[in-house]
Amino acid sequence: MVSRYVAPLRDLATGRVRDHQHRLSRLDERGWQRYGLLLDSAFRLAVDRRFRAGQERAPVIRFVASVRERYDVTGYDLDPRLAESLLWATLDGRPAPEPEQPSTVAAQTLLLVGLLEDEGLSPAELDRFLTAVEVDTEQAADTGQAADTGQAAETKQADETGQLDDNAGQADHGDPPDGSDWTRP
Amino acid sequence: MTALSDAGYASWARTRISEAREVIVRHAVCAYTGVCLGCGRPGPCATLAAARRTLAHHAHRRTNQRKDHTWYGHRQLPMMTGDVSTPLPTDELRAACLTVEAAVDRATRQLVGADLPLLHAGPTRWSGALTDAWAALNLVYAGIAEARKLPGAEPASVRELIDGLAAAQADAERAGGVVTRVRRQLATAEDRLRRTSGDPAARVAAARWRTAIARLDLVAARLALGARAVDRYVDSLTGTAPPPRPRANPVRPTAPLVTGARTAATVLISLHPRTGLRGLLARLRRTQSAAGAAW
Hints:
The complex is a heterodimer of chains A (about 180) and B (about 300). With about 180 residues, chain A is mainly α. Helix content of chain A is about 65%, strand content about 0%. Chain A has 7 helices and no strands. Chain A has helices at about 5-15, 15-25, 30-50, 60-70, 80-90, 100-120, 125-160. Chain A is globular, with a radius of gyration of 18 Å. By secondary structure, chain B is mainly α. The longest helix of chain B is centred in the middle third of the chain and has 39 residues, at about 160-195. In chain B, about 30% of the residues are buried.
C-alpha cells in the first residue's frame, strides 16, 4: 500500500494520467513539497537502475533521443541539453541543474516515465520500486535535516562569536517554508 | 468443462502450475551447450515443452481479464530488477525478438519485385545481427539464472560466479552495440523508403520497419538494464558498497513545481488521451456533447 504522496507517481508509471492530475490537484503546499522530493528520488533511482556512473555518453544520448521521439507527436519539445544534463548530474552525484525551473520538473517527469516504460515493471516490481523511493526520500530528508541542524548550530556559534556577517545563515535549503516537518504526512 | 467445483479446480490448477514451474527450473537449457540440465537431452527437451504448455494453459490471462496495467502503449514486460530470487521471464523478450523477425519477413515479402537493392540488402544484414543480439541476451539471462539461488544448489565459487557474470555483461554490451548499429541502418533504410517511394506496399514495409525499430530500442534498453542488474549483483557478491547517491534537492518553490508537473501531465494526456476510468468518462462526455450538438 503506497502513501497518498506516492500515489501520483504510481498513476504516472501505470499510465493513469488523469488520475495523476486529479491527485495533484488535491495537493496542498506541503503535499507539493513532498511530491517534489519523491519525484526527485524516483528519478535518481530509475536512472541508477538504467545507467552507470562513468559510462560512455552514447547510451544517454540515445535514451534522450528516444524520449524526445515519443513525445514528438504531442508538439512538446523536450530540451535535449536539459535532459542530458539532468541525467549526467544524477550519475555524477551532483544536484539537478536549475531545479527551480518548471521545465526541469517537466523534463524529470517525462524522463522518469520513459525510464519506467522501458523497464516494463510488473505491478509487484513497481510497488517495490515505489517503496524504495519512499525509503530513499525519508533517508534524504533525515540526512538533510541532520546537516541543516548542524549547519544551523555552526551558524549560531559563529554568529555569537561575531565571525559572520548579517547575511549568514540564509542559505538554509533543508527546511520547509512553514518550518513544519514535511517528511511525515 | 470440469466436474470439479471452482475451489477444487483452482486448487488442482495451482498444483499443476507449481509442478510445471519446478519442472521448468529443473530442465533449464544451458545457453552455452544447448543441453538440458535436467535430463541431458538436447534442449529444450520434451518434458520442458510439456511443462511450458501446462503453465501457459493454466496461467494464460484471457482478454476479458485485463488488469489495470495493460493500458495502451504500456508494455507489460516484467524485467529483472536486481532481485535474482525470482524467476526471470525470458519468454516475453523472446516474443519481442520473434516479432522483429516476423516484421522483417513481412517487410521482405512486401518488397518482392521492388527495384530497390538497398532495401533488400538491409534486412539480410540486420536479421543476422538480431540473431547475435538474441543469443547474447540469452547468455545474460543464463548467467543470471545460474547465479540464482536454487533450492539446495549453492554456487561453487563466488569468484567463478563473478567471472561468469562479467562475461555475460561483456556479451550484453557487445550485443547492445550490434543492436544500436543495426537500428541506425534500419532507420536510414526506413527514412529513405518513406522519402523515395509512394507505393502502398513500400509504406506498409516502412511501417513494419518502424515497429521493428521500436522493438530494437526495447531490446537495447533491456540489455542495458540487464547489464546494470548484473553490476549490482556483482557488487552485492563482492561486498562493494554502491557509490552514495546525492542528496535530493531539498525544497523547491511550489509554483514551478506545479507548473512543471501540470505541463508533463498535459503532454502525457495528449499522447494517451483515453486511458483509465477518467479517460473513459472523458470519452463518454465527449460522445454525449457530440450527440447533443448533432441534435
